């Protein structure tokens, strides 16, 4: 470690997992650590696309995983939720090296990620004042779900409990925000409703394209402006599906998507990262979920949202039959109820998100 850079404040690198939802969760973690006095740097390719929205934290793309020692040596401590490319290599001598030098962390970590050596190693190489700042963090991993949580707890609730109880961040909170660029206006287009019909697990999570299109037609009949948006890899596929009937907004990075979401009235989508982004931007979210559990842990939980579930699930088939038991009218009803409640909350001046 470069002792010439030692200061009185502990410097921490946080390396995020590589999905959009996880990236926002780890941004929340980094921001809480920053608010508790640590000097934070966040690593992640998705977070880097959103760096303009995180001006209070230095954000960098993933380092060369073949040179982690060199990159992370500039920090007093590193917390790593290994991206897939790194996770595949965590075995044998490399795993032993990583867990003895840095803190591995994820929702449900394998027992092999735990290390009794890390704290001793940090104490051996760090100045006493820096080690005392870091000591509460060094016993907290490697699983964020460190205990049984009540049914209905969101992942935001789980992470906040982890930060308070395990990391000893006494004032930890889930109420963190992204900072929009100054030229953007929150919900500038309140009748524009984003429809995001894809996800990373299309076979398991995605409602049918036909149902999304029927929902868009209902929205249009009610005076809304439905706009479809999907991941770049699905642009051509959805051009064919939409046949020009509805606007298809195409973005090549998360910054562009965030700007569009921030100025829209609401977001409708499958259980996917886009819903978490909208939620952190405090844009109302309607999530379509394949199981009969409106309070599932990974629901968007920063802003106002609602979850639509099937009336029935037939579990005897691979993946379960559920799509037919959610109607487009269910989505419209959920959206309008959510927007009505939002309007009443804002008028009453009680919005706390």
Automatic annotation (TrEMBL):
Matches recorded under Gene3D superfamilies: Glycogen Phosphorylase B
Keyword hit for Plastid: no
Signal peptide: none
InterPro entries, per database record: Glyco_trans_9, LPS_LOS_Heptosyltrfase
Domain of life from the UniProt record: Bacteria
Keywords attached to this entry: Glycosyltransferase, Transferase
Transferase as UniProt keyword: yes
Protein name, as recorded: Glycosyltransferase family 9 protein
Organism: Methylobacillus methanolivorans
């Amino acid at each position: 470690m470069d002792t010439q850079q030692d200061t009185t404040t502990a410097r921490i690198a946080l390396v995020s997992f590589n999905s959009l939802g996880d990236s926002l969760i780890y941004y929340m973690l980094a921001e809480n650590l920053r608010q508790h006095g640590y000097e934070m740097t966040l690593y992640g390719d998705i977070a880097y696309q959103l760096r303009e929205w995180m001006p209070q934290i230095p954000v960098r793309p993933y380092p060369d995983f073949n040179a982690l020692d060199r990159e992370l040596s500039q920090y007093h401590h590193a917390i790593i939720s290994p991206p897939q490319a790194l996770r595949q290599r965590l075995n044998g001598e490399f795993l032993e090296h990583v867990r003895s030098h840095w803190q591995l962390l994820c929702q449900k970590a394998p027992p092999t990620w735990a290390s009794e050596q890390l704290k001793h190693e940090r104490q051996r190489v760090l100045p006493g004042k820096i080690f005392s700042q870091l000591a509460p963090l060094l016993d907290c991993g490697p699983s964020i779900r460190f205990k049984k949580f009540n049914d209905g707890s969101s992942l935001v609730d789980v992470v906040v409990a982890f930060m308070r109880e395990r990391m000893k961040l006494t004032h930890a909170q889930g109420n963190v925000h992204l900072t929009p660029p100054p030229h953007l206006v929150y919900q500038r287009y309140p009748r524009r409703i984003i429809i995001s019909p894809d996800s990373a697990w299309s076979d398991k999570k995605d409602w049918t394209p036909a149902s999304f299109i029927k929902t868009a037609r209902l929205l249009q009949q009610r005076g809304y402006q439905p706009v479809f948006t999907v991941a770049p890899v699905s642009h051509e596929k959805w051009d064919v599906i939409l046949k020009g009937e509805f606007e298809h907004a195409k973005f090549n990075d998360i910054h562009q998507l965030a700007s569009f979401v921030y100025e829209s009235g609401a977001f409708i989508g499958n259980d996917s990262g886009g819903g978490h982004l909208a939620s952190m931007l405090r844009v109302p979210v309607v999530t379509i979920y394949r199981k009969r559990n409106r309070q599932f842990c990974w629901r968007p939980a920063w802003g106002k949202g609602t979850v639509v579930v099937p009336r029935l699930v037939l579990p005897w088939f691979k993946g379960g039959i559920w799509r037919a038991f959610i109607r487009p009218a269910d989505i419209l009803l959920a959206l309008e109820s959510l927007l009505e409640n939002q309007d009443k909350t804002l008028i009453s001046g009680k919005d706390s998100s």
